[in-house]
Amino acid sequence: MFRWTADRCRRFATRAFVAGAALVLAGAAAAASLEAVRVGAHPDRTRLVLDTSISLAPEITRPAPTTLILEVAAAPRGDLAPAGEGLVERLAVTATARGSRLEVRLTEPARLKGAFALAPGDGRWHRYVVDLEPDPATDAAREAAPTPRSSPPDRPLRARVSAPAETSPRRRPALATAVPRRRPPPAPPVVVVDPGHGGRDPGAIGPSGLQEKAVTLAVARRLAARLRAAGDVEVVLTRDDDTGLALAERLAIAAVNEADLFVSLHADSLPRHPDVRGASVYTLSAEASDPEAARKARKENAADARLDVIATAPDETVRTILTSLMRTSTGRRSTTLAQGVAGDLSTVTPLLPRPHRSANFVVLRSLQTPSVLVELGYLSNPADEAALAEAAHRDALAAAIFRAVTAYLNRG
Question: How far is CA 336 from CA 63, 120, 325, 330, in A?
């Protein structure tokens, strides 16, 4: 049984920093423009597309289950609000000091299916795509809701109110005997598990052909199953099939779901050094802790190139954000989680020397969510590759990460 902590409450204290960081990331907002906003309904999703003059990634928040807010560092060009379609009831675009603010009202609670940037292609505008899908929890609640009894047309249904026990219906109970109103239980912590790579991007490939994307998905599913079985935690997988996701999309899924923890799973490869083996855990930093960490960050940050998506922030701008981020509790909590994960992994698999390392990983650039990137081993090493192909070893890795995550949540 998990014990709820004050992490989510503490995150509100960082919002002032987040707002300031967003202004820094805007950078050239004055020169950027939001040219068009389009909404399209599809059988399995509703797609929102932003056309901008340069590559931009909006800041996405969800203040209410049926409201999405997108802050874009680009000035709107004219009246851009399109008609609602699908899950989008209506959309309003307003100019702000940093660019544009899009308020999207939904017909029902929805889940973010994807969010990613696209190069102009044959057109002249850069595009940012947000895909929404119906929330399965809402559908399940709707189906489980009891059907109200029918009543005559001229007699509306009225709720029955029982009088308090041993109290006259004409008299209110004394304050001393009144039953206090119970506060609603706190929301469970949200853990986002991110299986690295996918789709056209296989990630690392071992000598026998084992692909990183298959390993990470298998371990992620096992980890998600353990967390769900334990209860009192909500688990979100960034992908649950062989789908390619942009790095910005993975971050957006964590942000929209208000993640309390973000765990990204990977497997490395060093074909020129097949003797190197062992797991490791990475956190975010502006400067890499060592040359190997820097190499790993460059490799993972280049994943978007294999998916025909583009980078959304210059390194010099990000460096300013990261330097400030490391001074916040998010960086410290990420380190605590990483040390716990490394410790539990050491009981089931070999580790690299100094297993906790840090570098500038795009997928770890969350301003509010403690985030770690776990390297499960080296596919270029025959022993590691053989182990990562076995179901028993995948179970052991998932169990170790599960223990570290639950210990972190219980620590408060």
Answer: 29, 41, 15, 10
Tens of pLDDT, residues 259-314: 999 999 999 999 999 999 999 999 988 788 888 888 878 877 776 554 444 344 44
- For residue range 117-126, list pLDDT tens digits in order: 777 765 678 8
Positions in the chain whose pLDDT score sits under 70: 1-31, 121-123, 137-185, 303-328, 412
Which sign, positive or negative, has the C-alpha torsion 404, 409, 411, 412?
A: positive
So what's the pLDDT on residue 320? 52
Sheet holding 351-359, edge to edge: 234-237, 190-195, 261-268, 371-378, 279-284, 351-359
Ordered domains of the chain (ranges, CATH): 32-139 (2.60.40.3500), 187-412 (3.40.630.40)
Tokens matching residue 270: 């060093």
Helices 391-411/329-345 angle, 10° precision: 140
Buried b (16+ CB within 10 A) or exposed e, 26-60: bbebeebbbbebebeeeeebbbbbbbbbebbbbbb
DSSP state letter for 179: P
User: Going edge to edge, which strands form the sheet with 126-134?
Assistant: 75-76, 33-41, 46-52, 126-134, 110-118
- Token pair for residue 345? 């992994």
